[in-house]
Sequence to fold (218 residues):
Amino acid sequence: GPIMPRPKKARLIDASSEAAVVLPPRRSRRIAGRPDATFDDLGVDLIAIIYGFLGPFDIMRSRLCKKMRKAATTTTVPPTDFTVNSVIKYNAMRAMATALPNLQQIEIGDLDGGHKYSDGEDPDEGRAAKTANFITHDIEILSGFRNLRLLSLYIAPLNGRYPLLFQFPLLQKLEIDNCGNLKFDLEILAGLPVLEELYCNRNQSSGNINSLRVLKDT
Fold:
């Protein structure tokens, strides 16, 4: 068979020889200006900045201690798709209302069969009777997210009027689609002072169309 070349034997290089390579000293890890700092040296503000690059579920999973949980409550969570379309997702939203109050984007969708959100003011009586035995969930927990920028309601099991849905001072985009029993007057849009976009389809809206002047750049 072919003769394979013998591997070269490793050769030690004397540090004083010309072939020696002098490596630069390893840079110390610095956190908050301190060399070789540990996690304990991280401040809440810095952890919040780090969290600002993560999605809501990643943040929720990483809240391993009191300091991290506190940082989460001050984090401005970047806009991320978060659709509440099951009881499990509703329970997640319920937890986030206190753990991540600065969430910026939520879509409220359908719940599991036999579940609904609690009826609002002036509900449709026929629909209320048909769903009287459904398990109800509190939609008012949404009011905990004071920094919402985008709120979408799509096939959400809502019935009646819910003033709390129109009381977000920083909301820029509101979508209401296929919520047939949701009622609201256009005048209530005054509770959304920086609203820029409004999309409505198949719902019970009424009122003076001049109320749409609340939309920015209209």
Residues 176 and 200 are 5 Å apart (CA to CA). The helical segments are 44-51, 56-62, 66-74, 87-99, 125-130. The chain is about 20% helix and 20% strand. Residues 10-24 have pLDDT under 50 and may be disordered.
